[in-house]
Amino acid sequence: MATIDINKEIIWDPKFETGIQRIDLEHKIFLELFNSYRIAIIQKKNQFELNKIINVIEKYAEFHFTSEEAFMAQVNYPGIENHQHLHFDLLEKLNIAKHKVDNSIEFLQFAYEWFAHHTTHEDRSISTFVNKNNIQTNYQLNI
Amino acid sequence: MPINKSILIVDDVSDNIVLLQSILDKAGYNTIAATSGIQAVDLCKEIDLDLILLDVRMPQMDGFETAMQIQNNSKNAETPILFLLVKTDESNISNAFKNGGVDIINKPFNDEELLARINTHLTLRAQQNNLAQLNITKDKFLNILAHDLRNPFNSLLGFSELLHESIDQADLNKIKKYADIIQNTSKNTYDLLNNLLSWAQAQQQGMVVKKELVNLNELINELVQNVENAAESKNIEIFISLNEPIAIWADQEMLNTIIRNLLTNAIKYSKVGGEIKIKGVINNNFAEIRIKDNGIGMDETTKNSLFKVLETKSKKGTKGEVGTGFGLILCKEFVELQGGKISVESQLEKGCEFIFTIPIKNN
Questions:
Q1: What is the ipTM of this complex?
Q2: What are the residue ranges spanned by the domains of chain B?
Q3: Tell me, which fold does domain B6-131 have in CATH?
């Protein structure tokens, strides 16, 4: 996994693409939040300010996982239970990481890897399932 | 700072345990860790805990099953269990309270909230324990008022009536006999009442030990004189052996109650013609006092229940003397309040020996 360059914008990588509009949109927000955190580090914001962004990332992760699980349920994705457990593990890891934030860059690196690994592996399986079964997903269908 | 509160943390992920331990250690709690439900259930059979933090998602045996097994064992059946659950794990969150949990700690968590919830449940538990204890005390108090204090009045009323009749008959022998009985009964009842009131007072928070320099030799002589009549009536000899003059810093009133009760008991359970020996020595900054009789003694079961409020019952003396089984509870309370210890050695039909210690210094 690439090491984060604190001075460079974290950008969307095509390998993150699931092809599912809503999931991709939500994933892009994660990168927005990581960039907010990155900029706050450059601006030498204090721990209190940095913690506020970690809090937003945490809340957003809770929202996104719930949203993604709802999607999986709607398309009858067979691996939903296992995937949900992976989400639980991710939140536990985030909990541990946010308590060790003496090194902000380390947290950013953790968060990015945490995101990238899950997106390119487990979330990819959802899109494989959706494509294989020809499930149409778009906003008009409310999926 | 929480004093000596023990919290068990159960989680299959060691990073989670390390994190919780560091937060709780810093807050002053004693923590114990288990990495599986089975290990937690085993620990709960051995150790008295104040609170349990229990992860729900664990392989083999999950948190709900673990909670059930912990609560089926008497040792920690009442210990509050707080389930650790990921915030988005809604199906388990809605089941947590049905599965024996008093609260939920969501992961990710916030330290202040975690500590506040733990503190709330520890406080609640302590209050429940206090209330239960107060209720036992109240029941015991009422029980004594209802039974043990009523009986002596039957005797006082009966014998004073007989006394009255004897006066009419001018039968001096009978008058003397009944007056003696009335006096003895009154004295016993008065002692009983004093014990009861002292104990009730000791139950109230803030019972203060008022230490002063007490001359143990004088105190024991005085108390022995007070029971001489009772001892003579059973032809019992009392021997005092204090190797040296012993002066200790102690609460004189409490010390009075302790020795008076132990002496009265020794007489009560001695047979006619028995012997009571009182010994006093100084041992490592403690005065150790032994009161030994060669009376009826007691079996193991009685011995084990002697100092327990819930299990106290009175056994009549060898001449039918009554009591409440309460004096020893009071002795234990007063010895411990002053920083000492009390114990008993006894064999059925061979008598018994009560030993208590009191620190001699004033600190």
A1: 0.86
A2: 6-131, 208-359
A3: Rossmann fold (3.40.50)
